[in-house]
Structures are given as C-alpha cells and as structure tokens.
Amino acid sequence: MSGITELATLISAMQPKLMANEFVFCTVQGELADYVWLNPLASFSEVEGLTLIVSKTTASDAGLAFSGIFKQITLNVHSSLNAVGLTAAVSGQLAAKGISANVFAAYYHDHIFVASEHATAALSALTDLSDGV
Questions:
Q1: Helices (H), strands (E): how many in the chain?
Q2: What are 42's strand-pairing partners?
Q3: DSSP secondary structure letters along 1-14
Q4: With 70 labelled, which of 52, 58, 79, 112 sits at a CA distance of 20 to 30 A?
Q5: Cα–Cα distance for residue pair 47/117, rounded to 1 Å
C-alpha cells in the first residue's frame, strides 16, 4: 500500500489526533543500541550525536537533558512518502498561528510535535485546515 499523494485529499482526510503523552528531544553520544532500554519513539543519527524522541517521564527518570516539552499530533491519513506539499501546508497553517512544528514523516503517517502549551491551539488549527478543503 503506497499511500495518498494528492494534496487536497491528504488535507481533507488527515484527521489530526492529539496524543496523550508528552515527549522530549534529547541528544546523546553512542549508538541506538546503547539506548533501546529508553524505548525511544524515534531516533536520528547526526554528526553531532544521536537524537532521541522519548517520553518526558523516561527522560527525567534517566537524567537526560532536554529543553522543551512537546505533544504529538498524528495525521491519521496514509500519506505517501512521495507526497508533495503536506508538510508545507501543515507547517504553514501552524506558522500562521505562531506555532513551531517539528514534523516527523513515518511510513504510514506524519507526526507533528508542538510545544505542549500550544497543543490544543495546534490541533484546532489543523482541524480548521482539514475542514477548509
């Protein structure tokens, strides 16, 4: 199953859902195998270090440093990894409301991490975008 590529269809069908947990972005040295016990939601290896997205509770319990607390909004539409414009439309809608968006594209869905204090406003903005198509 390859996912949807047509932008209007993606936006109208995205059904954004605010997830319950709070997450943080941490940077650590070493390999992912050294940190699997943290059960990271996602990871990305950069020259400067390994970025982990983990629950706030997990990071706090492990003594990991972080500088922001985020909520996850999942777009419940199967977007193709080759789709053009969804990230721009979503981030543009949030930017218009003064909300920073950290977008993570996974195989089936896109996930947007927004500062916890802006999560409700972000969900509302994305719902408005979806309803407006």
A1: 4, 6
A2: 53
A3: ---B--HHHHHHT-
A4: 79
A5: 31
- Give the other-Cβ count within 10 Å of 16's Cβ: 20
Summarised one tens digit per residue, pLDDT across range 19-31 is: 999 999 999 999 9
CATH code for the domain of 53: 3.30.2130.10
> Residue 132's pLDDT is what?
87
- Both tokens assigned to 29: 């040295």
Domain that holds residue 118: 2-131
Owner of token pair 């809608």 = 93
Q: What percent of the chain has pLDDT over 70?
A: 98
Q: Is the pLDDT of residue 2 over 90?
A: no
Q: How many domains does the chain have?
A: 1
